[in-house]
User: Fold this.
Amino acid sequence: MHEIQVGFGDILKKQLELAGENYELLSSRGVRAFNVMGAIGSGKTTVILKLAEELRRRGIRVGAVAGDVAGDDDFRRFREAGIPAVNINTGDDCHLDAHRVHHALEDLPLEDIDVLFIENVGNLVCPADFPLGTEMDIVVISVTEGDDMVRKHPKIFAQTDMVVINKVDLAEVVGVDPQRILADYRKVNPHGRAILTAAKSGHGIEELLSALGF
Amino acid sequence: MHEIQVGFGDILKKQLELAGENYELLSSRGVRAFNVMGAIGSGKTTVILKLAEELRRRGIRVGAVAGDVAGDDDFRRFREAGIPAVNINTGDDCHLDAHRVHHALEDLPLEDIDVLFIENVGNLVCPADFPLGTEMDIVVISVTEGDDMVRKHPKIFAQTDMVVINKVDLAEVVGVDPQRILADYRKVNPHGRAILTAAKSGHGIEELLSALGF
Assistant:
């Protein structure tokens, strides 16, 4: 599930090395890590919180990294849910990178964490180019964004392992057909998994957990 | 309304020069241009289409530039509405820049255009750093994105002249209070204008036009 691409030059090479180191560190500590990407407002934080709730019910310990250009809204939501978390503000950068994540790993109590969710900066462009060293890359999208996001951002959907189509309970209200999004996704990523959720109500969370191997 | 910032080094300096040239060209041809930014799915294209509909009713001729990483969904919507338009695919870039816009201006029949809407790439991070040479910078956001986008992306909101809070008809369904967004916006941009719209139904479009000076 962990795919590495080369050819972007020195910057990406260095990023891949650092991502590899993160991957080794996480593996050696027995931590399964997931890179959760998606546009602002797609519901990344809520999806993670719902997954964490169910995982903790099963005795699995969860940690989180909150990545944002500015602010600590998501970080505070994780902490309020009792999840060990680190906040990364990227300033002008539109993505997390392996170096920043490495420092976050140093600040987390990895010995108390079985599963780490790394919430990336909210957009569908930049995060695609920066591997973090996670076991799996996930994109969360919301039907409220329309039905054209895969056609507009084929790269991130082609590269990632799984797409979560969230807020499907609002599909009718906003007049968007999730099947249209699914059809576009299958074109750019025939082997990727797709899960439909309405995370706020918990719909689809069990299925997503199972798809993540829990 | 056209604010220029310096200090980002050579790249921004060059961009500012090119933006200045675009501004001169547009002014000399009597074209009022607007840089329309916002996350994917915020409703930028629909807002522009509704503005164009009303402007054309008043005998004002509208043109458009559609900026996206990939695809031509927005471009086709403009063309189907009978609007002269140019599509810009940025590839890996998460924003339009003045150079790309300059080439688009060469491809547009500026003599037949009074108002030009330039729809930027859909995210709240990168477009903030690249002036295009427009008269005004506008950010379109949707209540479906949550209420934290200003806190997460203060820079773009501080720099732009106007924020359009769209899809307010869905505010109750998604449990988001537009007044909370407005309060955050006023903190980072006390002098910016804010207009509430539900563009699909045309709600707020008249007020927006008036705020744009029509």
In short: The beta strands of chain A are 32-37, 62-68, 85-89, 115-119, 136-142, 162-166, 193-196.
